[in-house]
Amino acid sequence: ALREALESGAQDAEIERLTEALRAALENYLQALAQAGADHDPDAPPADQTVTAEDLDAMLDQVRDLAKSGAANAARQALAELEQLLENLRAPGGPGDGQAGGAGQQQGAGGQAGAVGDLIGRQRALADETFRRGETRGATGDDLAKDEGGLAGDLSGLMKSLEEGAEAEAGGKALSRALSAMRRAEGALIEENFDGARDSMEEAIANMREGAQALAKADRARAQAAQGRGGQPLRDPLGRPVGEAGGGVNVPEISDAQRARELLEELRRRLSEGERTDDEIKYLERLLERF
């Protein structure tokens, strides 16, 4: 689904929603994969680290950031690298009938982190609409205030379902801050203060993202504790480091994404300079198309 969104040039809100949904789906898969390894050989010795959930999080952030910066081709390439890595997470008899499958084929997400991801996408869509409404003379915000209130209600309901312990402690605080920001956004929309509402929505998004990451981290910690090997890298059901069946997994350097963003920004800067000839402009535009 995320791959299709990148190919079709979907809006940032949709990219955000699908990214968070995929993140939660990956968390659930990795937990199941790790548990399958523990069930197969609970006493297996630790292995050298090959890939961690944090690596996958970083790669997924890379895809999202490239897409939002306008580097569509680079985002698709980063997603392809993530998909290739997942192809190496072999789990015979485990989830996915033996392998993780392509990231773009993941549908939805389970658990509370996935539910938060859906809320992030909805909030992003409301923030975008709030911006457009603020640019329109005489626009009212009553309908948006109602939608924001409904979103806050859904988040409140989700927070009540959090389990006791680390999950509620880690994710609940960030989500509580997000809820407060949503209530401020709702009030600002009633007063037709669109700029103030959007600022509060962005704050809510940032806190929901923090909360979702905390929930996912708590899930990982519980899975590791259940294995009795807290902090150890993931292993497949045969006791091998994850990725060994595919000859090892090389996690792409995040600096590659940074270089791509810097290059994209430099090309845009040069294109905005007013003293370029037509030939130079066409050349720079061709370079930008590669992104």
Order of helices and strands: HHHHHHHHHH
Backbone structural class? mainly alpha
What proportion strand? Answer: under 5%
Mean pLDDT: 70
Descriptive overview:
The chain has helices spanning 2-8, 12-40, 53-68, 72-87, 111-134, 142-160, 166-190, 194-227, 254-272, 278-289. The protein has 291 residues and is mainly α. The protein folds into two domains: 2-252, no CATH class; 257-289. Helix 5 (111-134) runs antiparallel to helix 6, helix 5 runs antiparallel to helix 8 (194-227) and helix 6 (142-160) runs antiparallel to helix 7 (166-190). It is flat and about 65 Å long. The protein starts with a helix and ends with a helix.
In short:
By secondary structure, the chain is mostly helical. It contains ten helices and no strands.
Task: Please tag this protein with its features.
69% helix
Record the SSE blueprint:
Elements: H1 2-8, H2 12-40, H3 53-68, H4 72-87, H5 111-134, H6 142-160, H7 166-190, H8 194-227, H9 254-272, H10 278-289
